[in-house]
Every structure is written in structure tokens, then in C-alpha cells.
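Review this:
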Amino acid sequence: MTALDRYELLEAEGIYEEEPGADPVSVILTFGSRSLTIMGSGDVALSHWPLASLHAIGPAEGGGLLLAPGAGSPERLRLDDAEMIAALREVCPELDAPPPPAPSPPRRRWLRNLLIFALLAALVFTGEPWLRGLAVSQIPPARMEAYLDRAASLAMADFADAPRCTGAEGHGALKALARRLSTTPGAYHLGVGTARDPGPMPEFIVVKHKSTAALALPGNRVIVPEGLIAAAASPEEAAAAIGHALAQAELRVSETLLKADLTWGRALGLLFGDGPPDVAPETEARLTAQRTADAALIDRIVLGMLDRAGLPTGALPDYLDRTGEAARATESRAAATPTPEAFTPALSDRDWVALEGICE
């Protein structure tokens, strides 16, 4: 069990300021798979701070700790809860590290960047297509994570005003459902990506929304709308519906497209700029189109996941029929294997009840 696993249910109160001089806001802090989630009133997320870049500025006035999502960010968070402070120091070993050295004088830094840009431009115009990929591979993880977070925020636009559902037992049932689809006993690994070793389970973001489709976000996060859970007639149908987004998350569909779509200017901005660039509108459109184009392929992957887990594969076409996806339902029903005479349900009765009531 990792430190994050131990603290997954830990919550604490804090005071959040979006920028210097902004009105302080009382917030609730929770851990995600790779981020600290800051939630305001109505369980609406105000911000996600990557754990990898979290930085302690120093003691807050009157005690506690003052935090920022990075050395150059204007956002501030005051935290007085001793247990949460101890947890952050455990999962973020660099939390109290001294700030990075002061940047070189503006003139020297400007000349250095200009020389690097001129060299890269010369290589580009001489026809070196591998160079952009090399530049992308050199982007610091914290900056790439911030870029993926920005893309995730755009993908969440339709759910921006939807309250979050935070029922602990319901979230426990969701994780049990994900582990049931795993091919590795005692760990989370669907076996559909290129990674051979188990990775972290996605962070589930359950929202009170009528949509019936889960959504995989960049940064290993999955949105599960209440409408999906309400539309599922059984835990097996819920496993099929959520499994679709879990497969996309493990295949890193969004991350792969976002990195492949980085132009030279945006890649250099991530390498040398002061902050992550905006996601190009055409990239947003391609992400949406990619999810639609991949639907049939992911359906076949989900059928295999259900079969390996010993669950009836007919749960997927049944759910698609129920939610108006007739063409996909017909195609997946043709590829489904016969329903086993006996199988262990995807969830216990207690967990299924908890999942159905996660937004209550």
C-alpha cells in the first residue's frame, strides 16, 4: 500500500487565494492519484495542484503552512491541519526543498534562449522530423503535467457546474469495480496498454450530471456522471460502462494525442517558457473526434476485459441499448461471448447499493 492509498479518504480545510489580493476562500482539500484537489462550496473543484510540483513557501502568519502549486504560481493555500501537513510531507518529498536558484539575468537568459531557438529552427528547416519529438521528450514532467491539467480542465467544461459526489463508500465501490477488471491480483492493471507493470488506479471524479458516458481525462483521471450509474441495471453493466473510460485511461489516448499535437512553438513554450501554453482549439476538436472514432475499438477491448474478469460480456451491449447506442450495441453483441452459467457478481449487494447512492 502506497502513502497515497493510506490518505485517499483524508480531508482537511484550508484557505485558498487565486492570486495576491484576491478574496480568501474556505476550501476542502482531498488527495487525487497525482494531485491535490481544492474544492469550494457546492463540491465544485476550484483547482488541481500536481503533487510533483507542490511547494511550501514557509510558515503562514499565525501558524500553519503556506503552499503554492509551483515556485512561480500566484495561487496560495493556507493549511493548518497537522495531519494533512504530515501527509503532504510524506507523499511530496520535495515539499520543503529550497527554491530553485534565481534565474539568470534577463539579458543573459534572453540571449541563451535566442541561440537555442535559432539552432532548433535551423535543424527544423533542414528537415529533421525527429527533433520535435526529442524536444517534447525533454519537457520537465511538472510542466507537462500542468499542460495535461489545462487540457483536462477544458475537457471538463460540460461538467464545470456539476457538484461532486464524495460518498466514501460509493468511491470505495468504484475502486472495487476497477480492481475486479484488473488482470493483476492485488494490484490495478487492465493489461490493455503497453505498460507491463501495474500502474496507479485513475482518480475517479463523480459528478451529479445526467450524462451516461464516463470520460477519460488527461492525467489519469476518469469522470463518472451520476447518470451512468442510474442507467446501469446491474453492477456488470456499470463495469462495462466505466471500463470504457478505464481502457482509454490505460491506453493514454488523450496524452498521446496531446503530445503528438504539440507544435514547435508550444513544445518550446513548455521547455523554456514561464508557464504551459494554451491547448490549441484544433487539438480540442481532435480529442473529441478521437474519442468517437475509438468507440468501436474500445468496445472490443471492454468485451475482452469483461471476459477475463469472468463477467458476462453481454452487459456491454445491454448498457449500450439502454443508453441509445443501438449501432454499437448491435456490433458488440455480435462479438460477445456466451453468458457463463454462474459468475461472481462484479460487486457485492452492499457495494452496489453504495455506488447507486454515491450522490445522495
